Amino acid sequence: MSEDQIFEYFHSEIVNYLYNEKTGNDLSALEYIGYASGYRLIERLTREWPRFKDELDTMKFICTDFWSVIYKKHIDNLRTNHQGVYVLQDNAFPFLTKISDGSEKLEHAPKYVAFTCGLIRGSLANLGINSTVTAEVQTMPSCKFHIQVNRT
Amino acid sequence: MTIYNMYVFDKYGTLLYYGEWNRLRKSGITEQEEAKLMYGMLYSIKSFVCKISPIDTKEGFLYYKTNKYALHYLETPSGLRFVLNTDIGATNVKEFLQQIYAKIWVEYVVKDPLWTPGSPVSSDLFKLKLDDFIKQSSLYGIRTI
Q1: What are the GO BP annotations of this UniProt entry (chain B) (predicted)?
Q2: CATH number, domain A3-149, options 3.30.1380.20, 2.60.40.2310, 3.40.50.1220, 1.10.10.10
């Protein structure tokens, strides 16, 4: 209970610190923190795991085990076009559940999801999948993470 | 039973939130003036109760009652002050205020990253949750006698 709160408060302060009027709309630092955390986190989380069969298997791991370690819940919906695009939908994304809904608050949403975008990208990178992750918030507190796998 | 209105002050006397449900009579002054008056009175009562008490008190001032309404007071260790006006039949209001603090205030104000500590609460989500919580409670709207 209390360690979740620390994570929540810490995250919101990092957002406040990195994202203010001076730096403008630059979310890259926040995203990078997420990337580095995700990259390291995966080392420890997967040590009991066999290798993943394929990309979809890896995504399922992200949606269930990975998500429950960080947010104590599962992703509500996973969709894919089987061509490298995955959409992860969380209907009550924890960083957004305490913010009130409304159009003027909605503009604050991107800065609270940037860290998590990086987190997903970093963990996938360490599992051998290079990707681009973006997030989309239409109504609070629901959030969609779009993962575009980069094939080379 | 019914709940009339609620004030939340911080330790410096700033009005953080004011909510109104069944208030029948207006004070005729602005909300800010009324808040100052209310805070001043609470401050006085608190020090009066402490000074005049013949024994050591743990909690100090808890509530007062007139013929028509009761004012319940909860002060947290951090200095937040919750004030709730109910009719005189209301019971267990102290626990109720504690629940408002723990379940609504901490969850939807303290954990709201867009709220700056010490500033008035503008979150619609908090207002909504507080409204629901008040209206679902047995203190609200049900006439037992």
Answers
A1: endoplasmic reticulum to Golgi vesicle-mediated transport
A2: 3.30.1380.20
The mean of the pLDDT values for chain B is 88
Chain A nearest C-alpha distance from B103 (Å):
12
**CATH number of the domain within which B17 lies:** 3.30.450.70
**pTM of the shown model:** 0.82
- B 51-110 residues with CB < 8 A to A: 107-108
The reply to whether B30 falls in a domain is: yes
- Chain B from 24 to 53: CB within 8 A of any A CB: none
Q: Do B113 and A98 touch (CB under 8 A)?
A: yes
Asked if ipTM goes beyond 0.85, one says no
Please give the helix or strand (H or E) that residue B19 lies within, else none: strand B15-20
Please indicate if any CB of chain A lies within 8 Å of the CB of B116: no
List of chain A residues whose C-beta atoms are within 8 Å of the C-beta of residue B108: 98
DSSP state letter for A51: P
Q: What are phi and psi of A84, to 5 degrees?
A: 95, 5
Type of residue found at A87 = V
| Residue among A103, A104, A108, A93 at smallest CA distance from A19 | A108
